[in-house]
Design brief:
Length: 180
């Protein structure tokens, strides 16, 4: 291994368990150091950039302490949504974001929170090799994350997504919310 004695010790001893500090944001986040080619650079911080179109990560090499920046962008052209009737359409971030914004209207949810929400949903939705997601899965991902942010926004989104017909449907959903 490339590490000098001392600093790299815990990593050298390591199996998967000891590597954990470097895997905080997932093993796939690792990127080779541009200075010394060490494979285990650490993410110091990450934040949305270009209005949420990309994620900027500040990284540090644990071996030579070189700091550098990487950008993660989504391969948009490849992302597809499969509709309920089986037809497909290119994924639209704007459309998803608009639906969420509507649900969050006049609620204490910031634009930054919505950006982060959409980024997270995109990451979860298009992990699969085909970069496909059904509208149903997409809706479930929205609900899962919205539930943790704002319950009123969650109910609004659920009422559209689950096609609530009457108060009974709201009541059922609220009961399940209260149970959590
Ligand atoms: Zn390095």
């Amino acid at each position: 291994m490339l590490r000098p004695p001392g600093r790299g010790k815990s990593v050298l001893l390591a199996g998967r368990r000891m590597l954990r500090p470097f895997r905080r944001t997932g093993q796939d986040d690792r990127m080779k150091c541009p200075n010394c080619a060490s494979p285990d650079t650490r993410v110091i911080n990450s934040r949305p950039a270009n209005a949420g179109e990309s994620i900027r990560r500040r990284r540090e090499c644990p071996v030579c302490q070189t700091r550098f920046t990487t950008y993660e962008i989504i391969e948009k052209a490849e992302m597809t949504v499969i509709k309920r009737n089986g037809s497909t359409a290119p994924y639209s971030r704007e459309r998803l974001q608009h639906g969420i914004e509507k649900a969050c209207r006049k609620r204490p949810v910031s634009a930054a929170q919505i950006e982060a929400l959409v980024n997270g949903i995109e990451r979860d939705a298009f992990q699969n090799p085909h970069k496909e997601v059904t509208t149903e899965q997409l809706g479930r991902l929205v609900l899962k994350r919205l539930k943790e942010i704002d319950q009123v926004a969650y109910l609004r989104f659920a009422s559209v997504y689950k096609q609530f017909r009457d108060l009974h449907d709201f009541n059922t959903e609220i009961r399940s919310l209260l149970k959590d």
